[in-house]
UniProtKB/TrEMBL annotation:
Gene3D superfamilies listed in its UniProt record: 3.40.50.2300
GO molecular function: DNA binding
Record-listed 4-aspartylphosphate modification sites: 59
Keyword Transcription: no
Name of the protein this chain belongs to: DNA-binding NarL/FixJ family response regulator
Alphabetic keyword roster: DNA-binding, Phosphoprotein
Species lineage: Bacteria, Pseudomonadati, Bacteroidota, Sphingobacteriia, Sphingobacteriales
The organism's place on the tree of life at top rank: Bacteria
Domain Response regulatory residue range list: 4-132
């Protein structure tokens, strides 16, 4: 198991929970820092003394206060820490539940695990640390489920057409007229409504605005 762990987290209650999880895993050497600048400084000192941390657990968002920081958030902390210590393992522990944001952390920042703060997150964090120690990637089960849902819908040309129209400001009730003018079928309002509702249900999206934002994020439109 990891011998030396650094936790960057500005909420004291979360630190208590993380401390208990690490103790359950038998990790005695652990440091906690409330600010990203302080966390990076500790990484630098440990690295210089050839007593590096094995694992960094960090939140993404840190509240601003009177102590102005050069490093404002977890994403920047990870990048700075990895520049100094490329082999440092990283677990992100955050409230963020956006699939594109989490995907970006894995693909472009190279994190090892993502645990969402939610019910049973202590158990989830323990599993993540154990997986990362075995050189495996890990993300919370609910995020994996959301990702499967997002990947389960196959957008057709008709879907892209009507969502693009919505994105460009065309009221839903006026879409049938455009479809008829351009000989696109089906063109009835009921068909358009059923199609949009089907997409939103498949993706667990509640309204057209969220659907448009999702399609932009995924570069579907």
């Amino acid at each position: 198991m990891f011998k030396k762990v650094l936790i960057a987290e500005d909420h004291e209650s979360t630190n208590i929970s993380v401390r208990k999880t690490l103790e359950d895993l038998g990790i005695a050497n652990k440091e906690f820092r409330y600010y990203c600048d302080d966390a990076l400084k500790l990484i630098e000192i440990a690295f210089g003394q050839e007593d590096s941390f094995d694992l960094l657990i960090t939140d993404l968002s840190f509240e601003e206060d009177k102590n102005i920081q050069k490093i404002a958030g977890g994403r920047e902390l990870i990048k700075a820490a990895r520049q100094l210590q490329p082999g440092l393992k990283v677990v992100v522990f955050s409230l963020e539940n956006s699939i594109p944001v989490v995907d970006d952390l894995f693909e472009n920042i190279g994190i090892d695990a993502y645990v969402r703060k939610a019910r049973y997150d202590a158990v989830d964090l323990k599993r993540a640390i154990e997986a990362v120690f075995q050189n495996k990637k890990y993300r919370s089960a609910d995020l994996m489920q959301n990702k499967r849902i997002e990947n389960s819908y196959d957008f057709k040309a008709f879907d892209v057409e009507i969502i693009t129209l919505l994105c460009n400001g065309t009221p839903q009730k006026n879409i049938p007229a455009y479809l008829q003018q351009n000989n696109i079928k089906p063109s009835g309002l009921s068909s358009v409504e059923k199609r949009l509702n089907s997409i939103k249900t498949a993706l667990n999206i509640s309204n057209n605005e969220q659907l448009i934002a999702y399609c932009k994020d995924k570069k579907i439109i």
